[in-house]
Amino acid sequence: MTMGFRYEDSFVSAISTPVLAEKRSSYKLNVDLSDVQEPIISAPEEVRQIIERVLQTEKDKLYMKPPRNINDDILKIIKEVIQ
What we know:
This protein has five helices and no strands. By secondary structure, it is mainly α. Helix 4 runs antiparallel to helix 5. The mean pLDDT is 76.
């Protein structure tokens, strides 16, 4: 014995199409990815050095399950670049 549920035909026709339609994103569809790099490119040399070295340090620690001492490494990089 199978039990089923059936909507009344009057209920189904009362649902408007926009309710069931996919809402489109209001974000721009044509995004220029160079905009993402712009703050790094326009940053002072010291900031670029810090960013590059921090990214390299993070890459070097990706193989570790818990990446240890990353905060200490980042602090060391910042101190070295500033001095």
